[in-house]
Write a structure and sequence with these properties.
The chain is an alpha+beta fold. It is built from 14 helices and 21 strands.
C-alpha cells in the first residue's frame, strides 16, 4: 500500500484533489473519487487506514430512526445497509446482517419506540414493527423479563470498520489514487494560481481541491484555513468485547435507554463476539482512550439490565473511542460544507452515525467538488472489485486442504483462538500491514480470548522478518509504540 514520494521537486507531488484522513469517511471518499480521471491523494498521519475513531465504535450500520427529522444525516443514512451490502461484495469484506430490537423496559418507554418508528419512516425508511414481550422472548430468550415491547427493525448489519478502510483504500489505489501514511498535515497555504500547498511532515504537496476528513482533528485542519467557526464537542465512549463462548446470548443489536452519559447497546460483532456499550465521559484530550475500572462497572451495569446473565468474567478486552459533535449545527446534524474562506475545500465533520452514513457522505462530497468546479470524467476502466485473501477459519474442510496444498503456510495456525494461519498474516504484511495492530485488525490474529498472548510473539517475528527490521523496531501501532527491547539474547548483550 505504499507510494514512494518523489523527493527533489519543489513540491513532492501535485494533485487535483487531496483527501486528508483515511478513516472510514476519507477512505470511502477516496474510493469514490477513484472512479474519475483525476490525480488524487489520500493522506493520513497514522500508520494504517481506519486507525482513528473508525476502529473504536460499535461498528453498526444503523437505521434512520437515530437521526432527527429533517437532518442531512437522516438522508445520508437512508439505504445504508443496501449500499454496504453491495460494497461488501465488491470489496470482498465482511458484512454481517443483524436485525435490531430497541427495548422498552417499562410501559412508559413505549412512546419512545413509537416516536423512533415515526422518525425513521419520516426519513423514508420502512420495515419497522413494534412487537410485544412474547415475541421478544422468542427472538432473544436471554433478554430481561422487564422488556414489555420492542421496536423490531430488520435488514441492518455490522462490519469491522478498519478492515473496510483498508479494503476501500486498496481499491482506491488499484484505481490510481496515491496513499501517504505516517504523513501529518501541518499547514495549508493558498498560492496565487488558485491552488493550495499542503505542508506535511514529509514535505509540501500542491493541489486545487482539498477534502478535510480528519475526524477528531477536522477542527484543527479548518483553523489552518481560518475557518475558526468549526468547533467540536467531544465525548469518550467506553466499550467492552466478550468471549465467543457467550455469543449465543444475543443475536440482535439490542438497545435500551439513551442519555448524555450512555447508549445502552449489546450486539454481535461482524466476527462473532458480543460488543457492549456505551458509557460516556468527558475525555481529557483527543488522545484519551483509557478505559477506567469505573467505566467497566458502568458498562456491565448497562449490559446486565438488558441481558441479566452477562458476566464480567467473559470480557476479553475493552476500549474507548471519542465521539465528535459540532457546534455549527443546532439539531445534532453533520456539518458537511465548503470552506467559508477558501474555495475548493470541503469540510466533513460527521459524528455518529458517521460510519453508517459514509457511503452517502462520499457521494455528496464528490457532488460538492463538482459544484466547486472540479473537472473530472468518469473512468471507463474503473475496477470496482478488490480481492481479499482466503480466510482459513471461514473455509470448508475441502477448501482448507486446497489452501494448504497451494501454500503450506496456510497449514500453520499461529492464532489458535481465531484460527488464523501464517499464510494470512504474511499476506496482510505483504499488502501493507506493518504494525502488530494492523495485522490484528485485518487478519484477527490477536483478537481472541488470549488477546495475542500466544500469537503476538509469532506475529512480531513475522513482521520483523518480512519488513527486514529488528524485532525491537516493530511497533504496536506506529509512532514509537515499540513492543520489545529486542530478542532476549540481544537484550542480554546490550545490558
Ligand atoms: C464510541 C463510539 C461508537 C460509535 N458507534 C457507531 C456505530 O455503531 N455506527 C455508526 O454509524 N457510527 C458510530 N460511531 C461514529 C463513527 O465511528 C464515526 O463517525 C466515524 O468512524 C468517523 O470516521 P472519520 O473517518 O470521520 O474519522 P477517523 O476514523 O477519526 O479518521 C480521521 C483520520 O484523519 C487522520 N488525521 C487527523 N488529523 C490529521 C492530520 N493533521 N494529518 C493527516 N491525517 C490526519 C487520522 O489519523 C484519522 O485516521 C461511533 C463513534 C464512537 C466514538
Amino acid at each position: 500500500m505504499n507510494n514512494d514520494i518523489a523527493v527533489g521537486d519543489d513540491y513532492l507531488r501535485e494533485y487535483d484533489v487531496i483527501v486528508i484522513g483515511a478513516g472510514i469517511i476519507g477512505s470511502m471518499i477516496a474510493r469514490e473519487l477513484s472512479r474519475f480521471q483525476i490525480r488524487g491523494a489520500l493522506i493520513d498521519k497514522g500508520p494504517f487506514p481506519g486507525f482513528g475513531v473508525t476502529k473504536s465504535g460499535m461498528a453498526q450500520i444503523h437505521s434512520t430512526d437515530f437521526c432527527p427529522p429533517g437532518t442531512l444525516k437522516g438522508k445520508l443514512c437512508l439505504d445504508a445497509p443496501v449500499r454496504f451490502k453491495r460494497l461488501a461484495d465488491q470489496l470482498d469484506v465482511t458484512y454481517r446482517e443483524v436485525d435490531e430490537l430497541w427495548l422498552a423496559l417499562e410501559p412508559s418507554q413505549i412512546a419512545n419506540l413509537e416516536a423512533a418508528k415515526e422518525r425513521g419512516e419520516g426519513h423514508g425508511a420502512t420495515g419497522y414493527e413494534i412487537i410485544g414481550a412474547k415475541r421478544i422472548r422468542e427472538l432473544e430468550p436471554h433478554v430481561t423479563e422487564k422488556a414489555v415491547a420492542a421496536l423490531y427493525i430488520r435488514g441492518l448489519g455490522v462490519i469491522h470498520p478498519p478492515e473496510w478502510s483498508f479494503a476501500l483504500t486498496e481499491n482506491a489505489l488499484q484505481n490510481g489514487i496515491h496513499l501517504y501514511l505516517n504523513t501529518s498535515v501541518l499547514n495549508i497555504q493558498k498560492t496565487e494560481e488558485e491552488k493550495y500547498v499542503v505542508q506535511t511532515s514529509k514535505g509540501p504537496f500542491k493541489t486545487r481541491f482539498i477534502v478535510n476528513a480528519a475526524g477528531l482533528f477536522a477542527d484543527e485542519i479548518a483553523w489552518m484555513v481560518q475557518d475558526h467557526h468549526i468547533r467540536l464537542t467531544l465525548r469518550k465512549g467506553s466499550i467492552a468485547i466478550f468471549d465467543k463462548s457467550v455469543s449465543h446470548l444475543v443475536r440482535h443489536m439490542i438497545f435500551g435507554t439513551f442519555s448524555e452519559s450512555h447508549s445502552q447497546n449489546i450486539a454481535p460483532t461482524a466476527h462473532g463476539n458480543l460488543i457492549l456499550g456505551i458509557y460516556y465521559t468527558r475525555p481529557e484530550n483527543k488522545g484519551d482512550t483509557k478505559v477506567s475500572r469505573e467505566g467497566i462497572r458502568e458498562i456491565m451495569k448497562l449490559g446486565k439490565e438488558l441481558v441479566p446473565v452477562l458476566s464480567e468474567r467473559d470480557i476479553i478486552t475493552s476500549f474507548a473511542g471519542i465521539l465528535a459533535g459540532n457546534t455549527m449545527m443546532t439539531n445534532g446534524d453533520f456539518y458537511i460544507a465548503p470552506s467559508e474562506h477558501v474555495p475548493g475545500l470541503i469540510h466533513v465533520v460527521a459524528g455518529a452515525p458517521g460510519l453508517t452514513a459514509a457511503p452517502g457522505i462520499a457521494e455528496l462530497v464528490v457532488k460538492m467538488l463538482f459544484d466547486a468546479g472540479i473537472d473530472m470524467e468518469e473512468k471507463k476502466a474503473f475496477q470496482e472489485k478488490r480481492t481479499g485473501w482466503p480466510r482459513f477459519s471461514a473455509a470448508i474442510a475441502e477448501k482448507q486442504e486446497d489452501m494448504i496444498a497451494s501454500n503450506s503456510k496456510y497449514g500453520h495456525i499461529i492464532c489458535r483462538c481465531e484460527k488464523v494461519s501464517e499464510g494470512e498474516v504474511l499476506e496482510a504484511i505483504h499488502r501493507g500491514a506493518s504494525t502488530l495492530d494492523a495485522v490484528k485488525h485485518v487478519t484477527r490474529a490477536g483478537m481472541g480470548r488470549c488477546q495475542g498472548g500466544f500469537c503476538g510473539p509469532l506475529a512480531l517475528g513475522l513482521l520483523s522478518k518480512e519488513l527486514s527490521i529488528p524485532v525491537r523496531e516493530v511497533t504496536k501501532k506506529g509512532d514509537g509504540s515499540f513492543v520489545t527491547e529486542g530478542p532476549m539474547g540481544e537484550r542480554g548483550r546490550n545490558s
